[in-house]
Amino acid sequence: MLWDALTLQLGYNATLVAIGATLLGIAAGVTGTFLFLRKRALVSDAISHATLPGVCLAFMVMAALGGDGRNLIGLLAGSALSAWVGLLCMNWLTSRTRLAEDAAIGSVLSVFFGFGVVLLTVIQTMGVGRQAGLEGFLLGSTAGMLWADAMVIAAGGAATLALVMLIRRPMMLVAFDPEYAAARGLPVGRIDLAMMGLVMAVTVVGLKIVGLILIVALLIIPPVTARFWTERSDHVVLISGFAGGLAGYLGAALSASAPNLPTGPIIVLVSFAFFALSLFLAPVRGVLAAVLRHIRFQRRVHMRQGLLALAQGQTIYEPLTLRLLRRAGLVRPDGVPTETGKARSAKALRDEKRWELVRADQAHEATAALYDGLRDIETVLTRDQIAEIDRRIGGPQEVRP
Amino acid sequence: MSGAEFVPLSLTPLLIGIFAAVACALPGNFLVLRKQALIGDAISHVVLPGIVVAFLLTGVIAAWPMMLGAAGAAILAVVLIEAIRRLGKIEPGAAMGVVFTAMFAGGVLLLEQTDTSTVHLDVEHALYGNLESLIWLDASGWSSLLDPEALAGLPVELPRMGVTLLLVILFTWLLWRPLKISTFDEGYARTIGIRTNLLGLALVVMAAIAAVAAFDAVGSIIVIAMFICPPAAARMMTNRLERQIAWSVVFAVASAVSGYVLAGYGPLWLGGTDAVSAAGMIATMSGLILALTARFGPCRSRTGAPSQA
Amino acid sequence: MLELATSEGTTVAPQDLAASPLAIRGLTVSYGQKPAVFSVDMTVQPGAMTAIIGPNGAGKSTLLKAALGIITPLSGQVTVYGQPLDDRRARIAYVPQRASVDWDFPTRVIDVVLMGLYRELGLLGRVRARHRATAMDCLNRVGMRDFADRQIGQLSGGQQQRVFLARALAQDADLYLLDEPFAGVDAATEKAIIAVLKSLKQAGKTVVVVHHDLATVTDYFDHVFLINTRKVAEGTVAEAFTAETLQATYGGRLATAQIDQISRALG
Fold first, then answer.
1. Which of A215, A223, A216, A228 is nearest to A277 (CA)?
2. Residues C129-147 pLDDT 10s
3. The complex's ipTM?
4. Please, what is the Cα angle at C193 between C190 and C198, to 5 degrees?
5. Does the UniProt entry include the keyword Cell wall biogenesis/degradation (chain C) (predicted)?
6. Portion of chain A with pLDDT greater than 90, in percent
7. Domain range holding C244?
8. pTM of the entire structure?
9. What are the tens digits of pLDDT across the range A335-381?
10. How far apart are the C-alpha atoms of A25 and A161, rounded to whole Å?
11. Listing from the earlier edge strand, what are the strands of the sheet with C83-84?
């Protein structure tokens, strides 16, 4: 069953949904990256919730004009309009009043949604005759998706993606350093607004598949996932688009393979699974790697502190330091240094003296910046340079272990 | 309107609405000042998975297991957000977005997978509540307020919300001073021995309890309006925390009352026949109040530079 | 005597430190993988005014914050008057950097100073006339009496700094720790603050200041602590504030001309 779904053999509707979800996932992943790097991820939450009154109003207007209230293009246009109004309200609150962005997001999100709920109840009692089915926009509903709907989603997703690609450079500049971008003469306000406009486009396109409450997940989770795998911004964009597309595809396929698996939530959960894997397993930025690195680092610090203490004949109280030194065979169980211990600690002390000279010497400024108390001096200076420093220190020559 | 109509049909939903709005606005003041307004957003979204899991574990729709489930989910969410923020070095907004959407999606999925046709538990109810349904059918008029038999038939949500409000007031009153100091200057608060981490967690838990109790009446998203709008509007009115709290309570009560009344009677005035969502209207009114204060409030502009930390 | 980073690790028995208002042993703090402060020992002399000096990013503020338990160190121990920090909080007053708080916070100057009386007031103690009088007196000492009812955001940077100092005075502590109190303040404020600090010293209190202006060190302080990730030197100004120690602290980052100037000023 799942295999059939993955190979798009579960019928017309499932195939439409899978293709739409994949495109949506890519568009959302790519667009969301800029939002995430701009540190405004949750602005999307306000934008998406602010679509609800627009959907309702569009429905009411279209029904009142005698048309089909459920025309997707009309509903999406309405949602875009009210999301835009929400966005402007939010910008006004943060720029003209003392409210910080988080409070502005929260108030726009909840008030627009609340007003939307009022309109939903109005529609329910309007006597339009049939169930409007607008609740489907809350969590998405892919049952009975039409060819035309899929086309709207596909075209919208592709257009959004094209626009993102077109203005990705200025958006990246603004995301990285808005003040510098402004100094370069970029219209930061307008670029920000364009970024939000693109987010709005993704939201509107995604309403049908994942709904307005969960669309933020598609904008936020893939970029966060991608960030674990690379330090390059252009790669974050690519990986995020890939992760978003894959989650959309797998999620849609999974949901088609069994009953009671709503498409939107499944896509979000698949995306979250990618995130969780990345959080733990990614090299360098992953948790596992970080924990291992921290343990190694802490040991190096204790080891070094212990060696320096030994070299100066001081007693060591810190139990971890003692344990590490003992395990390395540098001190005996009674705390007295072994021969190796003596040699290593003398070397540590001498290195410390060398560093001192390096750091006091203007000629070594670049090297001195590398000082962190742990680095072996051999890794940053040549043999000749060390010899030169030793000559200045004078006294006995280095003890070789 | 006569007491015979008002008491059974409107008194309890109105009181529950007021209690919920005030119980959320009080911790909301601190959340807004701490730039943690969106914690309210996150908490309210994860209430749904919390109650669904509680229902799956106990098999009944009962208040206390659900309250516990939702509070548990809120704490889990906060811990996860903090963990992702620290472990993954992800900015807090994005960490929140990851956690609450995933948990919400999980809740919806569980709900769809479970047979809840026999019980009243559905997504829409969870999203925007049903304040109007919390009526007091045993009442016949104002005299019922003294009638023990009628009082026994009060909707359980009313005493629950009342107790929650008392708890929130007690919390705010007891911890007023440390809350104020640590919200203003966390580093300093630590040097005078205030356990700021613990206090921050307690504030979030308090907000979660308020959100869970209010959830029944107004659903999980409109709760956010109650957390943020009255304190944000109060912020525009004064430069003193004590007065800000007082204003936020005034605004919370005003939104609850005007929202409830407009939802119930507004359509009638306009010639309609049916009431609209009271919870939605309360959120709308709180937004309107915020808009007015943001435009005309005496203290609407910034005075000092925001912190760089 | 000049002492170039010698004692290491958590190696000094606690009983030797009882007399010091603030004794730090083997303190290492790191942000990520790079230590900001590495294995630092510091023994603050009672009744002295000590400046913590070092280049930008040398760990000055980090040292102070770790000593106060605001950030958690990787290793090391801190004693205050011979006891663990948590038992001696009442004897410490801290003045944070101005940029660390939200100055748009809804509160008045007098309320901020009253925060300094938190330990005395407790959770629910009422603010009585004598508390108010104490707070006003502290404001008076920093020349801010007339501003008591202002919202804090309406103050200039220097005035904000003085309010922070007044809050610390209200704590009536024995050890005062100030993080860059002179950064970005006007000359009048600098004068007012230094006058207060000197009066604290007269009253037998101990003062430690993170300081960045080398030109004023000899005027303001009697002890210095030079740090650049590691301790470079510690002692009286005459002993430890020399061309040699400065060179060791600042390395290439301090122009030779500046050092010459300072050593000339030192005579």
1. A228
2. 999 999 999 999 999 999 9
3. 0.91
4. 120
5. no
6. 31
7. 14-99+174-266
8. 0.85
9. 788 888 888 888 888 888 888 777 777 677 777 777 777 777 777 77
10. 11
11. C34-43, C23-31, C75-80, C83-84
**B105 vs A214: CB contact, 8 Å cut-off?**
yes
Is the CB of residue C39 less than 8 Å away from at least one CB of chain A? yes
pLDDT digits (tens, 9 = 90+) for C172-218: 999 999 999 998 888 889 999 999 999 999 999 999 999 988 888 98
A200/chain B closest Cα distance in angstroms: 16
| B174: number of Cβ within 10 Å | 12
Report whether B248 contacts B231 (CB < 8 A): yes
Interface test with A, best of B133, B277, B292, B302 (most A CBs within 10 A): B277
Q: What are the tokens at B248?
A: 């936020």
A170 Ramachandran zone, left/alpha/beta (phi>0; psi -120 to 50) = alpha
| Homologous superfamily of domain range B3-220 | ABC transporter involved in vitamin B12 uptake, BtuC (1.10.3470.10)
CATH of the domain at C191: 3.40.50.300
Q: Where are the domains of chain B?
A: 3-220
Would you say residue C130 lies in a domain? no
Mind giving me the DSSP string for A341-363? HHHHHHHHHHHHHHHHHHHH-GG
**B306 at C interface, C-beta within 8 A:** yes
Helices (H), A125-210: 136-139, 147-166, 168-176, 178-183, 188-206
C115/B contact by beta carbon, under 8 A:
yes
Closest CA to C156 of C98, C198, C115: C98
**In terms of DSSP H, where are the helices of chain B?**
3-6, 12-33, 37-58, 63-87, 92-113, 123-128, 148-151, 157-174, 176-184, 186-191, 196-235, 241-269, 278-296
Assess whether pLDDT exceeds 50 at residue A179: yes
Q: Other C-beta atoms within 10 Å of A324: how many?
A: 19
Query: Is-contact B151 B144, C-beta < 8 A?
Result: yes
Q: For C83-106, what is the HEC assignment?
A: EEHHHCHHHEEEECCHHHCCCCCC
pLDDT of amino acid A144: 67
Report the alpha-carbon distance of residue C43 to residue C23 in Å, rounded: 5
8 Å CB contact between B238 and B214: no
Q: Domain spans of chain A?
A: 2-260, 288-393
CATH fold of A2-260 reads: ABC transporter involved in vitamin B12 uptake, BtuC (1.10.3470)
Using the Cβ of A305 and the Cβ atoms of chain C, whether some distance falls under 8 Å is answered with yes
What are the helix (H) ranges across C85-240?
A: 109-115, 118-121, 129-141, 157-170, 187-202, 217-220, 237-240
